[in-house]
């Protein structure tokens, strides 16, 4: 599903955020990315959906060699990848329905098809009754559920989540995790950067720890491994 070979990312300020990194992530895996702040986790995952380009090395995602991908082909890559952020990134002036539909409308689906697909995912995340509300009328957990609905509405093979529970209280975080678990059980690969030690140590999955831009640990059913 994702292969990185000798990937290095050096930002224009000279900082080497990812350093000669190799990884292979298989279809259907659930992978936690852990490590201290500034370790390179976000850079590592941003390169998977071409939010950042590597300075050197090869990245293959979903069979696509990203080094051969032209900028105008990036939307085609993104269509097969759902992305979930810590701060949700919902469009504030659009309703719940419209926020989710927005992702589909760019690929010119018919209105009836859009409605069906949007209502399907909103009912999966338990928000069918709030379709007309604006993001500001929802709790943080509900906003994150909308953003998860948006991330999966195109039925991507891969969902990337950068600290999806970072702004949520513990109980809501567990609800969001059950949702991600369910999506993973349906066959979607999930990559999740997190500082949530409770979650990593309880819902066991592969754990990749990054420090100074390098993978320092890679364990199946691993532990969080840091304090706090
Ligand atoms: P993490 O997600 O683990 O906190 P990041 O990937 O965000 O790590 O950052 C890794 C390093 O790269 C840090 O030193 C950070 O300051 C630096 N960095 C991140 N983004 C940029 C950028 N756009 N320009 C320059 N340096 C950056
Ligand atoms: P119901 O018949 O119970 O209203 P529907 O499946 O017809 O159920 O619609 C569910 C909700 O989605 C309704 O509140 C409807 O107004 C809303 N909705 C449907 N299509 C759109 C759209 N294109 N933009 C915004 N809201 C929509």
Automatic annotation (TrEMBL):
Gene Ontology MF terms: ATP binding; ATP hydrolysis activity; transmembrane transporter activity
PANTHER family noted in UniProt: CELL DIVISION ATP-BINDING PROTEIN FTSE, IMPORT ATP-BINDING PROTEIN
Protein name according to UniProt: Cell division ATP-binding protein FtsE
Chain's gene name: ftsE
Single GO biological process annotation from the record: cell division
Family label: Belongs to the ABC transporter superfamily.
Subcellular location(s) per record: Cell membrane
Keywords: ATP-binding, Cell cycle, Cell division, Cell membrane, Membrane, Nucleotide-binding, Transport
């Amino acid at each position: 599903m994702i292969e990185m070979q000798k990937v290095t990312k050096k930002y224009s300020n000279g900082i080497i955020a990812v350093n000669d990194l190799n990884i292979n992530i298989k279809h259907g895996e659930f992978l936690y990315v852990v490590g201290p702040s500034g370790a390179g986790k976000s850079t590592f995952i941003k390169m998977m959906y071409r939010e950042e380009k590597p300075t050197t090395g090869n990245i293959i995602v979903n069979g696509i060699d990203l080094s051969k991908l032209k900028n105008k082909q990036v939307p085609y890559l993104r269509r097969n990848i759902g992305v979930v952020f810590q701060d949700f990134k919902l469009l504030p002036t659009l309703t719940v329905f419209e926020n989710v539909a927005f992702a589909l409308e760019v690929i010119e689906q018919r209105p009836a098809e859009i409605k069906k697909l949007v209502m399907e995912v909103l009912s999966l995340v338990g928000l069918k009754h709030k379709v007309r509300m604006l993001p500001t009328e929802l709790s943080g957990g509900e906003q994150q559920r909308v953003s998860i609905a948006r991330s999966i509405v195109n039925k991507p093979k891969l969902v990337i989540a950068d600290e999806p529970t970072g702004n949520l209280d513990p109980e809501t975080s567990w609800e969001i995790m059950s949702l991600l678990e369910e999506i993973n059980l349906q066959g979607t690969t999930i990559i999740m950067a997190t500082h949530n030690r409770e979650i990593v140590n309880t819902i066991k999955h592969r754990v990749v720890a990054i420090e100074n831009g390098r993978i320092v640990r890679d364990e199946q059913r691993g532990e969080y491994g840091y304090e706090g």
